[in-house]
Every structure is written in C-alpha cells, then in structure tokens.
Amino acid sequence: MKLLLDENLSRRIVPMLEMGFPGSSHVVLLGLERAGDHDIWIYAQQNDFVIVTRDSDFSDMNALYGPPPKVVRFCRGNCHRKVVAQALIEHREEILYALSEAGRGLVEIL
After folding, report:
1. Does the predicted model carry a pTM greater than 0.85?
2. Is the pLDDT of residue 102 over 90?
C-alpha cells in the first residue's frame, strides 16, 4: 500500500514510512503542491495511492464519490512528524485490514 501525504503533513515523513509503506510520497514531491483537492484525488486514484490527511476535505470527498482512492485521516492534534510516522507504522496492520474491506474507504487514526 502506497500512501500519498497531503500538504498538511510534512514531506519529511516519507522516508520514515518506506519500510512499512513502500512507494509512498508527498504531494510536494510529486509537483502537486499547487493542485486542488480534486486534482490530488484524481492523481491518487490513477496511481493507486491511499491519501493521508489531517483535514476533512478528503473524508468528505470519500463520502461523496466513494473509493478509490481510499483515505486515512490523521485526527490527532498538531504533533511532530515522528509522532505521525510512528502512528502510521503502529497502525499499519489495522489500516491494511480496514481498507481491504469491501466498500470501506476511510480510516481515522485518533
């Protein structure tokens, strides 16, 4: 599973995720820093990414359009990038399991 980190998460998280989520990237690293949410949604859909975000925009799009792409919403407050990376790694199996369920397009990390 490849993760696409939204602009509201640090791009410095990407190398920390390589072991658990190989092929992951960040919108800035892909030249999408000026792209709107809909364009990022389409990019993730076409390139088999799961979007990771802090805000509700992609959760709302998931409810409106359904997957793919699937979405992981990081609901914890402002925290250091290492905390975000660690949470994603610690919840990796739960994320994989939940997003493998038919019709499920959203996982929230609280």
Report:
1. yes
2. no
